Amino acid sequence: MQPRTKKLALAFFLLLLLSGMPLPRLFAPNAQAQTDKPFVVEYYYKTKWGHADEFITLFKKNHYPVLRKEVELGRILQVHADQPRFHTTEDGRWDYRITIVFKNAAIANDNFDASEIIKQLYPDQDTYKKEEQRRFEILDAHWDLPVKELDLTAK
Q: Is pTM, for the whole model, over 0.85?
């Protein structure tokens, strides 16, 4: 590119940027593909010693059915759980990893209100709330980790 052409291109870019107009699609490649791409989040749960079985029992009773309803609604594509086969050091220990594959990142971050699903599934809201409170009381730690696929064949 000629120096003059570079200056004109930069001036045009700055004009678009300052005007608030959307930048041409050239600057946002694959924007549509990114919104349609599944979005994966891993949820880690570390329970207090001796409470792992109680935690997963409450999870399967009170939270997993809500997630299954979201699968039926098409918000979530897949839910699965893992637990370590062996133990690790205490600082790296976790008891359960729940992986949720959302339809896309927008849905994963849209602050969906599941209260109507919860009321429908659990008419006894007092019991539900007590059990959910207990599920979190027996946790030592909980963290959410959005993950992305890494293409090992890409250069």
A: no
